[in-house]
Design brief:
Blueprint: H1 8-36, H2 43-50, H3 54-57, H4 64-85, H5 92-109, H6 111-119, H7 134-152, H8 162-181, H9 191-207
Helix pairs in contact: 1-2, 1-4, 1-6, 4-5, 4-6, 4-7, 5-6, 5-7, 5-8, 5-9, 7-8, 8-9
């Protein structure tokens, strides 16, 4: 007996329904991860939020980690799209400032994604799913290349370790973003100028040769 295939219209509706359900699962998971903490949330909790059975959730995602990876990819791709689309200018320092500032803007525009990926210590590392997050490596290479350009043009001392300099630039941005997201900044105090000053202070320190202790991690081949 020949089984009739679903019409194109019905197939489209089924795909739309599936995508709507997938979106609902991701939204529920993101809210739970942020408010309860990744380590405290189970597939059962997510299923209860969207009023599905745990088994139904597995029809969309193989695990809680897979849900996290999907959320992380969404958030980080929004950052990567802007970073990778930005062409180099004539000013190497301005390009470096722009890269670091975009990272901070991401924490403001996508605070839930930022908090989940960068502040929750219980989430899996995105490097474990390398192929899916290969664009993150490209983003990091772009930022590192901007530091190396500053060294090559004599804007930073030749003894500067690019990896160390990049970490020094990122660290205060993550710190201020964490303070803002956790409401630790006094009411009425503008945080954006603090972040800009932290970037400028770090750049000034690097130019003065202040980083003398840290060394880049040597990865065994």
């Amino acid at each position: 007996m020949t089984v009739a295939k679903p019409s194109k219209g019905r197939q489209a509706r089924l795909l739309e329904l599936r995508e709507t359900t997938r979106r609902a699962i991701l939204d529920a998971a993101l809210d739970l991860f942020i408010n309860e903490g990744y380590g405290q949330v189970s597939i059962r909790n997510i299923a209860a939020r969207v009023e599905y059975s745990p088994g139904a959730i597995y029809g969309y995602f193989t695990s809680k980690d897979e849900i996290f990876y999907a959320l992380a990819e969404e958030g980080l791709r929004s950052l990567g799209a802007r970073e990778l689309a930005d062409a180099p200018s004539a000013d190497a320092l301005d390009d470096l400032r722009a890269s670091i500032w975009r990272f901070y803007e991401f924490s403001k525009e996508q605070p839930q994604y930022f908090a989940l990926v960068f502040l929750d210590r219980h989430v899996p590392r995105v490097s474990k799913d390398y192929e899916r997050f290969a664009f993150i490596s490209e983003m990091r290479k772009r930022a590192l290349a901007r530091v190396e350009r500053c060294i090559a043009e004599g804007l930073f001392p030749g003894t500067t370790h690019a990896e160390v300099a990049l970490r020094l630039l990122w660290a205060p941005v993550v710190g201020f973003a964490a303070l803002r997201l956790s409401h630790r900044i006094p009411e009425g105090e503008a945080i954006d100028p603090l972040v800009r000053d932290s970037i400028e202070t770090t750049i000034a320190g690097i130019r003065a040769g202040a980083p003398r202790h840290a060394r880049p991690l040597q990865v065994a081949s």
